[in-house]
Fold these 4 entries.
Entry 1:
Amino acid sequence: MTGIATRADAERLDAGDPLGRFKDAFDLPDGVIYLDGNSLGPLPKATPARLEEVARREWGGDLIKSWDKHGWMDYANRLGDKIAGLIGAGDGEVVVADSTSVNLYKVLSAALRMRPGRTKIVSEIGNFPTDLYIAQGLTGADSGRELLMAEKAGIVPAIDGDTAVVSLTQVDYRTGEMHDMAAMTEAAHAAGAIMVWDLSHSAGAVPVGLNAANADMAVGCGYKYLNGGPGAPAFLFVAERHQNSFEQPLSGWIGHARPFDFLPDYEPADGVSRYLCGTPGIIAMAALEVGVDLMAEADMSAIRRKSIRLSELFIERVEATCGEYGLELISPRSPEIRGSQAGFTHSNGYPVMQALIERGVIGDFRAPDILRFGFTPLYLGFADVWDAVEILRDVLASGVWTGEKYSRRGMVT
Amino acid sequence: MTGIATRADAERLDAGDPLGRFKDAFDLPDGVIYLDGNSLGPLPKATPARLEEVARREWGGDLIKSWDKHGWMDYANRLGDKIAGLIGAGDGEVVVADSTSVNLYKVLSAALRMRPGRTKIVSEIGNFPTDLYIAQGLTGADSGRELLMAEKAGIVPAIDGDTAVVSLTQVDYRTGEMHDMAAMTEAAHAAGAIMVWDLSHSAGAVPVGLNAANADMAVGCGYKYLNGGPGAPAFLFVAERHQNSFEQPLSGWIGHARPFDFLPDYEPADGVSRYLCGTPGIIAMAALEVGVDLMAEADMSAIRRKSIRLSELFIERVEATCGEYGLELISPRSPEIRGSQAGFTHSNGYPVMQALIERGVIGDFRAPDILRFGFTPLYLGFADVWDAVEILRDVLASGVWTGEKYSRRGMVT
C-alpha cells in the first residue's frame, strides 16, 4: 500500500519531491503524460543548444581540427566514463559506440573466443529479440555452436561446462522482471562461462553494480532512460581484468592501437578502446552526453525510491479502479525484482493503447497483448501517475477503443 | 595546361562557374581555404536548422510517435535511395546504417557466405587500413581463410578460383588513384568472385556507376564529400540481383522481416533492409540528409569537370612555383584516373602541413610523408586554389615549418 489515497496526496508528494526540479530540464509537450521513457526518453531542454554548438562551433568553426581541439577523438571514452558512474563500473571500463546490437555482437564474439572449445550460448527465450538474433548470427548451422534459449527458471540448469557465455538482459523488456545480477553471474562463473549483461532497460532506471556483481561484459542503450535521442549510440562495458585478453572481429581502424599510423596490420588498442570500430558519430554523442549528464546529476538511490513508489501507485490504482476490464499484471508484484516499468495484458491491448495515446497518456504496446508503462522519476510525478490511471479507466469504461479507427496495427517501437 | 596564368584568370573562371552558387550553402570560416573536404566535409548552412527541427519538433514534440509520423522507421531506406542517385544505383539498392567499417564487415561476411568453399579475400596493400583490418577480422588464424594484400598491379593476377571476394577502395585515400571499376569487377566475376567496392573517396567526388559496372556490393562514407558531419552514418549497396540471396551475421532486429512482432527467431527482411542491424540513429541521419540533398542538387558531371580543372590548376601551380622545395607528386598525372584529390610527398610533410594549416590552408598529412589536398567543387573556387599554392610556396620558402612548434606529431584525421 502506497498510502496515496487521493490526488491531493499525490500532489503533496510531488511538492516535496527532491527530484521534482528535474522535470523542468525536459521539454515535454503540453497535455502529455509520458509513460514511454523506457522506449524513447524525451528531449532534454539543453540538447538543441548542444547540437547547435557541436555543429556550428565545433564542426563548422574548427572543421577537421576539432578531432583534437574539441576532444572528438576520445569522446567515446570520456562519455563512457560518465556512463560507468551510472552502472557501477570504473573509469576506462566503458566506451560509447555503435548500436546495442552491434555491441552485443562484439562482446559475444569476444566471449566465445575467450572460451575456445565451448560451443554454447545460453540465453532466455523472453530476451529482447535483437539479443537472440545477434546470438543466432554467431551460432548458425555451420558455426559448430548453438544458442540455447531457456525459460527463466531453466537458465541456471542450462549452464554447463560447454557453455561459453550466458547472455541476459537484466530487466525484461515486457514484464520488467529483474534478474539477480550477482547470483546469475556467479552461476555462470561457477561453470567457467563468461557473463554478458544487456542493460538497455537498467541504465538510468535502476542501480546497477557491474563490478560489485563481478560481471564480465555488458552493453546498453542510450535512447531509453539515458535520454540520448532516437537511435543514440550505445555503450559497452568490459571488466578491467579482461581488458587486454579479448579479441573481437569488428576490428575497425578506431580500435587500432595507432590508427593514424595507417599500418596495414590490425593491432588492437589497449583496454576497452579495442571495442571501437568505425569513426565515432560525434553529433549523436553530443546529444547523448546531455542526457547522461542530467542522469549523473541525480542521485540513483533517490531515483530508485521514487521509481518504486510511482510504479506501486500505478499498479495499486489500476487494480483498484480498472479491475473489471480484464487487465492482468504481468510484472512482478515485488518491487525489489521489478525494473522501472509495469506491464499488463489485455485481450485488446493494441487498440486500448492507441486510444490511451490519443488521450495523451503515452505508453506502448508489445505483441501479442501487452500494455507497457515506464516510470521515469526525473520527469514524472505522482499526480501524473494518478491522472494516467484515471484516463486509462475512462478509456476502458467508455469502450472507445472498439471503434474502427483503433483497429489497425501500426508501428509503435 | 589549364590556361590559367594569373589570379585574374582564376577569378574570371569563378565568376562564370555554374557551381559557384553552392559556396553560399556552406558555412566556412573566414580566412580558411579548405582542402580537406575529402576527410571531413564542412557544415552546410542548413544543417543546424535541420538538427533543431529533428530534435525539437520530431523527437521533442512527437516523442515515440515520430517513428511513424516523421518516417523514422524507413529513414535509412529513403536516405539510401537519395544516395543511390549519386553512385549509379537504383531505388531499393542502398541503405544508410552504422559506420563504413561495420558495413564492410557485413558485405564481406555476406560475400564469403555466397562463395562457400572459397577461402580468399583479395585486397590491395595500400587500401585504407580499416578495409584491411575488417578483412583481417574475417580471416584470422582459425578461420580457414586468408587475406591476400597485393600491390595494385598484382591484384588481377591474384584473383583465382579460390577467391571468394575482391575488396577494393575505388579512389586511393593517399594518392587519389582510381581503379577502373568496370574492368576490375569483370576480372572478379570472370573468376567467380564477388566484387566489393569502398566508395568512401568516390561518393560525391567522382561519377560512380555501380550498376553500369555490374558491381555486387559497396559501402561508403557519409562525412567526406557528402558533408554529413563528423562520424556521419555510412551507406551500403547491394545489387538488386543479390538482394534475397545473401546473409550476414549482424542480424539485429531492424533487419528482421517483422521487427515489431518480437519473434524469437531471426528472419531477414527482404532486400537491402536485411543489412540493417540496430535502431537507426535519427539525429545523425538528419544531418547527413542535408549534405546529400545539396549534393543531389548539383550536376555530377559538372562537379567532375570542375574538380579536374581545380586539381590540374593546383598541380600545375605547385610544380611551377614550388619546384625547388622537394615536393613530389604521388597522384596520377592523368586526371582520368585521379579522384578529387592530389597528394605530394615531402620529407618534412607533417610540420609543413601544420604550418600551412596555421596560415589557413587546411589540407592533411598522411603517414609517413604525404601532404594531401582535396578539391571539392561545391565550395572551392579557382582563386582559392591559386591562393592556396601561393601560401604553400611562402611556407616552403620561409622555412617557418622547421621551428620547434611544428615538430610534434598530433592527430590529424
Entry 2:
Amino acid sequence: MEMREKLAERTKAVEAVVEQYLPKEAGHQKTIFEAMNYSVRAGGKRLRPMLMQETYRLFGGTGAEIEPFMAAIEMIHTSSLVHDDLPCMDNDELRRGLPTTWVKFGYDMAVLAGDALMIYAFETAAKAFAMTAQTERVGQAVGVLAQKTGIYGMIGGQVVDVELTDKPIPEDKLEFIYRLKTGALLEASMMIGAILGGACAAEIAKVEEMAACIGLAFQIQDDILDVTGTAEQIGKPVLSDEKNHKTTYVTLHGVEQAHRDVEQVSQDAIACLRELPGENPFLEALIQMLVTREK
Amino acid sequence: MEMREKLAERTKAVEAVVEQYLPKEAGHQKTIFEAMNYSVRAGGKRLRPMLMQETYRLFGGTGAEIEPFMAAIEMIHTSSLVHDDLPCMDNDELRRGLPTTWVKFGYDMAVLAGDALMIYAFETAAKAFAMTAQTERVGQAVGVLAQKTGIYGMIGGQVVDVELTDKPIPEDKLEFIYRLKTGALLEASMMIGAILGGACAAEIAKVEEMAACIGLAFQIQDDILDVTGTAEQIGKPVLSDEKNHKTTYVTLHGVEQAHRDVEQVSQDAIACLRELPGENPFLEALIQMLVTREK
C-alpha cells in the first residue's frame, strides 16, 4: 500500500476514536455540543492524535488508555483554531471551505465552544484514570497536556504572535513562536504517547526533542511553500506572507538557507527516532512526509 | 473573634496560597502573565478555595496537595468572569470598580487570558501529583475539576444563560442555569476537598448535595436582595433584574416563597454537613453566612 493510502486509512481510524469521545447533542446545552462537534468534525488529517498513537505503539503500548488522550489533543487543537478565527483575533470567516465556528454559531457561542473544548479535553483525558492501573503515567500525561497547551506552550506562543501582528519579528521571537505555537502540541502528542507507552525519562526527553524538530521543520517548510508553492498546492494564495509583510523564516534567512535548515532539522528528527528503542516504520514514513511535504 | 474578622483572616490566608501559584511576570509572553494576574488579583472573598480547604480539613486533611487545587479553582472562576465580561457576552467595562480585563489589555488578550487561566488551572492542579502518595485521589480530583467546570457544569450553565438572554426563562431551565452556572464550581470546590481529605464515595456524594444546596440558596438570596436590598448593600442598582425584564427565582415564585425556599435549602445544607463525620465550626458558620447574607 502506498503511504498516501495508508495515511488515509489511519486518519479514518483516528477519526473514529475521536468521534467516540465527542458529546451527545442532547439536553438544555445542545447548542454548545453542536458547536463543539461542528468544529472538531471540520478537522484535517488528525496528525496530532496519530503521532500520539504511533509513538505509543513505538514503545509497545497496546491499551485503550491512549484513546481519551487522542481525543483530548484534537479538542485542544480545535479550541485554539476556534478562538484564533474570532473577529478580535484573525477575523476569519472560512476554514477548510466551511464557515468558521463564530460565523455559524455566533461570536458568544464560539468563545464558549472554544472554552468548552479546552475543558472537555481534560475531562476526556481524565477518563484514562479508570482505564489502566498505571495511574501515575496518566497523571504525568495530564500534566504534560496542560504544560504544552498553556502559557509555557501553545497559548504562550499565540500571545507573542498576536502581540507582534503587523510588526517586524526579531529572530529569537520568531523561533519562540514556532516552538510554542506549532511545536508544543506536537511535543505533547508524542510525549504523551511515550509516557503512556512506558518510556523512561531519558526516552521521553528524546521524544520531546524529536517532536520539537518535526514542529520546526514543518513550520519552515510552510514558509518555504508560501514562496515556492502554487496556490493549488498550498490551498491559499501564494506569497501571502510577503504581501502581508509578515516576518517568516524565509524573510529572515532566505529561501536557500531555509531549505538547508529544514533538511538539517528533519535529519535531526529522524536521528532521534533511530536512537529510540522499538521500531515503527509507519511513524518514520509519517515524519518524513511531514517535513518534506509539498503542500 | 467575630465571624467577620475570622473571614477576613481566612481570605488573606487563602489569597496567599493562590498568589504562590500565579505565574511570574517575565519572558516573551509577559503580557499574558500580567493579564492573568491582574484578573485573579481583582477577586473577592475567595470563597471557592476557602470552602475547598475547609472541607478538606473537615475530613482531617493536613497536606499541601490541596493548595494547587485551591489556586486552580480560583483561576477557573476568574477565567469565566474574564470571558463573561467580553463585548460579545455581557460587555461589562467594570468589575469591582476596576476596568475589566478586555478594557485593560484588549479584546484579543482577554480571550487569551481566559484561555490561559483555564489551562493553567489544570497545569497547577497537576502539580499535586508530586505532593502526595495518594495519586488516585489527585486523579479523581482532576476529573471532578474538569466535569464541574465544563459542558456538564459551569460552561453548560453559561451556554443556556447566554441563549436565553432577554428571553423569558422557563422554571426548569432557570434551575438548570443556577445549578450549573453557580452551583457546579461550589460542588467542585467542596468535592475536591472531600476527595483529597480521603472521604468515601457516600461522603463525597453528601458533600456534593450540600454544595448544591449552598449554591441554590446563594442564588435565590441574590435574587431576593435585588428586590429587597439597598444599592449600598448589594453594590449594584436595585431592581436591576426587574428593569431588565430578567426571569429570576423571585419573578417566578414571588419574594415570600423565595424566602421560604432559601430557608429550606439552607437547612438542607446544614443537615448534610451534620450527617458528615468530623467537625468544622468555621465551615458551618461560613455556610450559614453565605446563605443568609444581606449583601
Entry 3:
Amino acid sequence: MSEFPVLVNGTWRPALELRGSFHALDPATGEEIPGDYPISGAADAEEAVRAGRKAALDMMSLSPDVVAAFLEDYAALIEGRAPRLAAMAVRETGLALEPRLLSVEIPRTVFQLRQAAACARERSWRRAVIDTKADIRSILGPLGGAVAVFGPNNFPFAYNAAAGTDFASALAAGNPVIAKAHPLHPGTTRLLAETAWDALLRSGLPRSAVQLLYHVGPDDGFRLVSHPLIGASSFTGGRPGGLALKAAADRAGKPIYVETSSVNPVVLLPGALRASSGEIAAELFASCTLGAGQFCTQPGVIVLLDDAAGGSFFEDLKARFLASGPGQLLGKTVRDGMESAIEAMSAAGAEIVAGGRRIEGSGFRFENTLLRVPASRFLKTPEPLQQEAFGAVSLGILAATEAEILAVAEELEGNLTGSVYSAPDGSDDALYARLAPILRTKVGRLLNDKVPTGVTVTAAMVHGGPFPATGHPGFTSVGYPAAMTRFAALHGYDRVRPERLPAELRDKNPTGAMWRMIDGGWTRGDA
Amino acid sequence: MSEFPVLVNGTWRPALELRGSFHALDPATGEEIPGDYPISGAADAEEAVRAGRKAALDMMSLSPDVVAAFLEDYAALIEGRAPRLAAMAVRETGLALEPRLLSVEIPRTVFQLRQAAACARERSWRRAVIDTKADIRSILGPLGGAVAVFGPNNFPFAYNAAAGTDFASALAAGNPVIAKAHPLHPGTTRLLAETAWDALLRSGLPRSAVQLLYHVGPDDGFRLVSHPLIGASSFTGGRPGGLALKAAADRAGKPIYVETSSVNPVVLLPGALRASSGEIAAELFASCTLGAGQFCTQPGVIVLLDDAAGGSFFEDLKARFLASGPGQLLGKTVRDGMESAIEAMSAAGAEIVAGGRRIEGSGFRFENTLLRVPASRFLKTPEPLQQEAFGAVSLGILAATEAEILAVAEELEGNLTGSVYSAPDGSDDALYARLAPILRTKVGRLLNDKVPTGVTVTAAMVHGGPFPATGHPGFTSVGYPAAMTRFAALHGYDRVRPERLPAELRDKNPTGAMWRMIDGGWTRGDA
C-alpha cells in the first residue's frame, strides 16, 4: 500500500476498509501531485469516534492549561515549519506564497491558536454562574465526545481541519478533534497533522485528542456526524454537501455548525455613489476579485439605484472587470461551480456584462465575471439569482426606485455579511433607516462604507449569520472566546459536593481573575 | 360560529380555513367542558408569521424598557386574576388548586416574567463586545421574526405558550410570540392571552407582539416552524410530535428548541443505601409520584446494586408504591401513554412489581407503577427500557456489579437530570469518580444526594441537556438570562457609524451599569 497513513486512536496506521484513494492536483497546471491519500471506510470513522469519546472523558479531568500549552506549542511549531508548510499549500491550492500564505494566513492561524489558548487559560468564557443560596451552579463544559471538523478548500491554514479556527475552538473548549481534510489539499493537512502530533506527544493530552482522516465517502460522513458518541461537528464548504451532513446530524440530535454559502450583499445608496463613485468602484472591484473571489465574504450581490450616478458607477465597475485578468482557482470544482452558477443566473434573467467564460488550457481559471439584472426581474425569482458562485462572480441588481431596493433586501436569504455605503452628508440617512432593520435580520455582520472581505480576528468579530449562511444565527466561527462556545454543553450542578465540582464552580476563584456571576453579580472574587 | 376567536395580526377574530374544533375535558370526570376552540388552518399561521415579522422589525427600534414594562404589567394582571385563572386550570388539568396552582405555579410564572423583564432592562445578557481599535462590535439581538411557542400539557402556567418561560424568554429577548396553546387547557391559555392582550394594549409594543392559535394540524405546525419569516420555535411535550416539528424546522434552517423526554436517572451507590435506605426510599418515592409523576424531571430510571442493602431498599420502595393511591392525570393521552410505555418495557424484559393497570371508571387515572429489570437485561436492549412513560412510572435497574452500574450509565441517552446518592463517609467516592464523568456527558443537571423534581428558577439553573432530552446541549429553558439567549441572533457591526449602532454598542454605556467586554476586559464603563 502506497497510501499515507491516517491518524486514528493514537496511531498513524493504514486506513481500514479502504474505499479508494486520491491525490491532489496542481491547480496551476492540472497535473497530479505525487502522493496517494486514502478514502477511509466506516471502520476508521467508528474507531475514531470511539477513541474520541474516551479521550473526551480523559480530558474532562485535565486543567485547561494543558490544552492551552498544547495549542501554543503547536502554534510555535507551525511558525518554525512555515516555509515548508506554505510551499506545500502553494502547490496544492495555487494560492500565492506572498502576500497571502506566508505573511497573512499562517500568522492568522497561529494567532487564532494562541487566542483560543489564552481564552482557555483565562476561563471566563465558560460563563460560570453560582447561586450560593440554592447551591445551584452552571458552567459551559466539554461535549463528552470528539468534534468532527470538515475543513473547506479556500483556507488551507486558517480553516484547516487540523489547525484552523474550528480545530482551535473545539480543543480550547476541551474537546478532542477528528479532522477531516479537504481533498484539495491533503498534503498541507498531513504536514499540519504531523506537526500537531509532535506537539501532542509532548503535551499531557491523550493521544486521541487529535485524529486525522483524509477523506470519507458521503455515507461514512453521515455516520460520523450522527454517531451517538460524537460530540458535535462543523463543516465549512459548499451548500449541497453541508446541508446533507446537517440533515444527518440533525436527525440524530447532534450539534453541527455549517457554513455553506453567502452572497454578501453590498447596497450602494444613491448619495454614496454621487459622492465617491470612483473610490467605491475601485474598492468593490478589488474585493470581488481578491484571491480570485474565493472568499466566503466575496460580494456576490451588489444592489444599487439605476439612476445616472448608478448607471455610470456600474459602467465603471464593468470596465474594471473587463480589464482584469483571471485569477488562479483552487481547483476544477471551483471552475465548474462558477460555470454552472453563471448558467443558472443567466437562465433566471441575468445578463453577463463582463467575463463569463472558463480559460481553456492547463490549470483551472475563469474570467472575472459581472452580471446585471433589473430588480424587478430579481424579485420574480430571487432564489436562483442569489446563489453563491464561489469565485470572482458578482451580480448587480439595478433598482428603479428606493422601494425596490428595500424589496430586494427583504427577499435576501441569510448571509454572513451585508454592507451599506451611504453619503457622508446625510442624504442617504432616511433610506438607510428603512433598509438597516431589514438587512440586520439577514446578515451576521453589518458593515458601513466598507467591503466585506477581510475578517479581523477579534473577540467582537461575527463570522456567522442566518441560514443558509450558517446553520444557527447565534454563533460565530471566528473570534474568541465566542467561537469556542459552539463546542460546549451547559452543565448544571445541583447541590454537588464542593470537592466534586469543577474548580471553576467552587467557592474560591481558581485563578483569582476569572469572571463569574455569583448571586446575581459579575465578579472576579470568591463566592 | 360558536368557536372562540384566535388572536392574529392584532385582532381577535374567527379562525380562517377552520380544520375543525375541539373542547377540553375535565380529567377528573372525563366530561366535556363547554366551549369550542378552533383548529386553525394554514391561513392563520401564514398571517400570524407575516404579522410577527412586521412586529419584529418594529420592536427592533424600541427600548428594552418597553417590553420589560409589558412583562411586569402582565405579571401583575395575572396576580390580580389568579383565582379565576387557577379555577379554570383546575377544571381543565385536574391539578390541585392548593398547594400546586395558586401558591406555587402562578407565583413561579409571575416571578419568571419579572426575572426576564429585569434581565431585559439590565441588558448585560446581550453580551456586548467592543473592539475600539478595529471598530468592530457585536451583540445578541432579536431574531427578526416571531417565536412560535408550543406549550406542554403539564404546566398550564409556568410553561404556558402565552405566559410561561419560553413566552417570557422570547419577548424579553425582543421577539414577538405566536403562542400555540396546548389542547388540554385551551381555556386557561385563552384567559392568559386575554390578560396579555390587556397589558399589550396599554404598552408601547406593536399589537402583533403576542398572537394566539389554539390548535393547528401537523402540516400547519410544520409550516409554522419552517416559514422563511419565522424567527425560531420552541416545543415542550411528547417525543414524536417534538421530533417531527424539529425535523421540519431543521430542514428549513430555522432554530427550534425542543424538550421532548427524559427519564432522569437516579443512581444509588451502595454506601448511600447502607447509610440511609429509608430516607432515600421515602424521598425518591415522593419524587416519583409527585403530581402523579407528570413532571419532565420525574425519576423514571433508578440504578442500584443488587446487594443486600439494594435488595431491601427496593422492597421498601415497592411497598411504598403498592400502598399508594393513583393520582389524577392530565388527560386520556397521559393514561394511554403510560399504558403503552409499560407494555413496551415489559416486552423488553422488565417486570412489573407494583401497579401497572389503569383505573377504570370516569376520569383518567393509573396506578403508580414500579418495574424492575436486571442490568444485564437492560444492557441488551437499552432503548425500549429507557423510554419516558410520562406519569408515575419508574424502572429499577439492578446491577450485579459496580462495573454494570457504569455500563448502564454509558448506555443512557441524553437526559435533563441525573442524580447520584453516595455515602457521607466517603465509601462511595471511588465509584462516584468513575461514574460522574460518564453521567456528566449525559445530563443537563447533575445532582448529589437529591431528587430531580423541583426546578428552582435561578440564573444558575440548567433545565436542558443532550438529545433527546432537548435538541441542543448548550441551552436551558429555565433561568434568566440564559433562557433568553436561545431566542437571539449574534449581530456584528463593522465600522457602523456611531449614531446607527444599537445604544448598547455605542461608546457610552447606555445604563451606566450594563456589563460589556471592551478591548478584552469586562467593564461597566464607557468605551
Entry 4:
Amino acid sequence: MKAKNAIYAQSGGVTSVINATAGGVIEAARKSKRINKLFAGKNGIRGLLREDIIDTSIEDIIEIKKLQHTPGGIFGSCRHKLKDPSSNKREYERLIEVFRAHDIGYFFYNGGGDSQDTTNKISQFTIDAGFPVNCIGIPKTVDNDLPYTDNCPGFGSVAKYVATSVREASLDVQSMSESSTKVFIMEVMGRHAGWIAASSGLAHDKNNSAPHIILLPEVPFYKAKFLKRVKDTIKKHGFCVIVVSEGARFKNGEFIADAGTVDSFGHKQLGGVAPTIAGMIKDNLGLKYHWAVSDYLQRAARHISSKTDVDQAYAVGKAAVKFALSGENAVMPVIKRTSSNPYSWKIDKVKLSRVANVEKKLPQKFISKDGFGVTEACKNHIRPLIQGEAYPPYKDGVIETASLKNKLVKKKLKTFKV
Amino acid sequence: MKAKNAIYAQSGGVTSVINATAGGVIEAARKSKRINKLFAGKNGIRGLLREDIIDTSIEDIIEIKKLQHTPGGIFGSCRHKLKDPSSNKREYERLIEVFRAHDIGYFFYNGGGDSQDTTNKISQFTIDAGFPVNCIGIPKTVDNDLPYTDNCPGFGSVAKYVATSVREASLDVQSMSESSTKVFIMEVMGRHAGWIAASSGLAHDKNNSAPHIILLPEVPFYKAKFLKRVKDTIKKHGFCVIVVSEGARFKNGEFIADAGTVDSFGHKQLGGVAPTIAGMIKDNLGLKYHWAVSDYLQRAARHISSKTDVDQAYAVGKAAVKFALSGENAVMPVIKRTSSNPYSWKIDKVKLSRVANVEKKLPQKFISKDGFGVTEACKNHIRPLIQGEAYPPYKDGVIETASLKNKLVKKKLKTFKV
C-alpha cells in the first residue's frame, strides 16, 4: 500500500496531558513506513479548514518527548462544531479538498463527545465523496463523560489535583476555624457530570473528614437542606469544606450560577457558583467563609498530573495510529479496566457511532444516599486513576515545557473563510 | 540554670510550611536539656489564654518529622489581636498566670507583623510582672511583608505555586484563544504588598509571554489605561493573562473588590477582584474570559512547595530555640541573603521592636515603569526563593500528612473567657 500523509487535530478544552497524546501519535507515526508525514491542524479543525497545517516532521524528537510534560495544547485547539453535512456541506467538502491536496490517508481527531461525533461524520463523508480517509477519534476530556472507556485522558490528573488541593486547603481552614474561617468552598469543573467534584472524596482519610459536602450536577440542589447540612457539619467538626461542581443546579434544571453566555456549541458558559454558595451561607448562617475557583488551573496543572493518566494519554495516542494502520475507521481507542485492585488496563476500541453525543454521568450507586457525597464504590473506582506522580522537570524553579517550531506547510488551495 | 518548660503558638493565616517551622522548634527543644517539655497553644494565643495547652512531648518523632510536609497549622491558629497592655491588662495578666502555672521559661510565637508586635509586648510585660520569659518571634507570612528578613517563610512556596500555575494556565488559554477564551485572570493573595502577584513574573521564559499584566496593590488602578493594555496585548499576542492581587486598588485607596467584612484586626476581608476585572473586560471589550481565584489553595499547596522555603521555615524554628537558650529576648530570627547568584543565606536576628507593624511593600525598583509588570531585578530577587521541589510522600495518590495526638495537659487554673 502506498504511504500517505496523516493529520492530527485536537479540539475543545485542553488538558494537562493532551500533549502526551499528541506525542504518542507523533512518535507512532514516525515509526511507521506507511505514514510519510504527520501534519497537525493549527487550532483544531479550524486550522484544517483554513489549510493552516503544521508539519510535525521537522520537530526535534527531544522536544516531542517533552510533550509528555507540557500542559495546554501545543498546536492550539478550538471551539467549533461542524454541523451535520446535510446542512453544512461546505465545510465537509473543504475538508476533502484539504485532505486531497495534502495526500492525507489518516485523520486523528482528539476531543470530547462533540469531536467524536464530528470524526464519525467526516469518516462517512470521505467515503461518500470517494476519497476515503481512515478517521480515528481519540478520547480526551477532564469531564470524564465519554462512554465505553474506563475513563477519559485528562480526568485522572484533574482528580489528583482536586483530591490533593482539597486535602491541603481543608487542613488550612481547619487550623483557622476556631476563631476565623469556618466554611471553605471550592468550585470545580464539570458541566453535566460530577466526576471531578466526586474525586474530591479521595481527600478523606483517617485524619481528614473533609470534604463534608459535595454538590454534584446529578443531584438537585435544595437550599434549605443544604444550609442545614452546613450548620450540622460545623456543629460536628467545627468547620465545613464544600466542593461544588460548576454544573450544580436546582431541581428545575437552572444552574446555581450562570454567567449568561454560551459557547459555539450552545453550552452555557459557567463560573461563579462558589461565590453564590458563599453568599447563601453568609446571608443565612452568618459564618465566615473563603472560596476558591480553580478554573483552568485544575485542568492545566501538569505539575500534579497522575502518572496513570499520563501513561493512558500517551497510550491512546499510540493506539490511534495502530488502529488507523490496521485499516480501522470511525473508531476510538478506549481504556478497558481489566482489574480494579490492583488496577490494570489495556487499550481496546469502540465504534464512533456508539460514542457520539452520549454523556456518561456519575452512576447512582456512586452517589451517597443523602446526595451530599460519594460512596466507597465511587472512591474505589476513581482511586486507581490518580495513582503515581509524573513530575515534570523544572527550570529556574518553574515547570519546563516543550518548544516546537510549529511551521506551517505551504498552502495549495484558495482561502476559505471559517 | 534550672530547666523550664517552653511553649509554642502560631497565629494568623497558616502556610504550607508553618508546620515545618513547628517541627524545627520541637526537634530543637527535644535536643536541649534546659527545656523540659515543649507545649503548644491550641489555636494560637487563644489556647494559651484558655489554658488549652498541647503536650508535644508525647508525640512520636516519626510524626514530628512528617510536619515538614504537612500543610495547615497542626496545632491550630487564630485571628486574635492582643491590644496594648494599657487598655487590655486582663489578657496579659492571664498569660503570666498560665506561664507561671506551667513553669514556662520560653515562649515562641510564629506569625506575621501583628504577632511580632504581640510577642514584643508580652516579653516586656513578663519583665514588668517579675516573671521574665524569653519571648522569641518567628517570621511567617505568605504576604512576605516583614522587614529585616530576606523573605518570610511561606512566601517562597506560594511564589512557586503562582509562577507554575500561571505558566500552566497560560499555555491552556493560549491554545484556546483563537476561537474561544482570550483573557484569563488569576486572583492571588496580597492584601497590601504585591509580592505574590509579582512572583507570577517568573512564569515568563522564551516560550511564554504571559502573564502580560500584573496588577499590584502598590500601583493605582486606572480602568481606561488597563482596558487599553488588555486590547493591545490581545492584538500583539492573541491572548492576555492577567494576575491581580486581592489588594489591587483605585487611586483613592478603594479596593477593586471589597467583600465588605473585616477580621478581628480590622483588616477588610477581600476576595472577588478577579470576577470584577472579568466583568469590566466583558462589558467594555466583549472578550471571552475565564477567571480563577486560588485563595487558600495557594498558601496550602504543600505539593508544590519550594525546597528553599521548606529549608528556611525549618531553620527559623530551630534558630528560635537556639536564640532563646542563649538568653535572647524579644528578637526574631531572620533570613539573611549572603549571596544572590548562587543564592546563599544564613540565619540572623532582629529586635522585635524594629519589626513590629512595619510592612515591607514591593520596592519601586521592582515595578516596571508602566506599572503593569515587574522588573528583572524583581525576578532576580524572587527566583532563588522558588528553587527546588520538596515533594511530599503520597498515599493512595494523595499527599500524606502527619497525625498528632494533640493531647491537652491538665488545667490548673480557673476558666478564662476569651
